[in-house]
Design goal:
It is a single chain. The protein is mainly α. It folds into two domains: about 60 residues; about 210 residues, no CATH class. Helix content is about 70%, strand content about 0%.
Length: about 290
Amino acid sequence: MSELAGLERGYRRLLACYPQPFRREQEDEVLAVLMAGAREGQRRPGLAEAADVLKSALRMRLRPAGWGPGKGPWGDGLALFSVAAPLLLLAAAVLEVALPYRPPQTAPVARVFGSSSFPIGGLSLFHLPGFGIAVAGLAVIAALVLLGLRWVALAAITASAVYWLVASYWIPEPLQVLSTSVFLLEAAVLAASPGPRRGRALMTWGQGAVLLVAAAAVQVSTLWYAAASPPVGVLTRGSLAPLYFVISAVLALAAVGLAVALKMNRYFLLLLAAMFYPYVMQLAFPLPAAVAT
């Protein structure tokens, strides 16, 4: 009897690693299965079965059982973010190419840069080392999450980050800060959430509209950043910066208002706010030497 009591205590210590809701509902049942499978005369859990129990407990803590379909607003928020964040970043990169900033042709601008109009952003970005590869990486990641390939998408994020570091290349400012926060949060969410397949099932047209308005706000804010940053901001005296600032603020408020009106998952909105926080700080407090390129 003392051997069985010691073995039961050992199993209960292992089962303590499971989330409390699971233990409350199923601990006795799992314990009975473990005790029934024990060898005669066994005094403590074996290494193999202890490893299996701990692995199962860790998996359950990373992906709680309450995150199944129709359950767990926190899990649904993570799943939504795993799909929405790469799509938003890709949309922002596409708009950066489609809507470049063209400074007004004032006399100071003409003296410094010549009389021809030059864009900041736009198709000229593809002349930068690695920009096309970086955008292709964003497209691949977005496609993988839409296909529900969680671990392949996580590997693609890792490969993209390694490429940017090795190639000493980054998405042009200020999108580099947004890209960093998206990649860090997306990697964590892919590992811990119910997965992008669940997020894809939860996506609606309304949420897609919020993402598009948010991406437009990001692009207009980059125009404001370009208009206010040196040397263009100094040469033009920031003539267009206030207009871009107002438009980006209106679009950002529209995205927030639409999200509230649609009663979107609050945890999903919290993750979006955490994603945008470094970007907003970059815009509010730019580095002295920052130049939009």
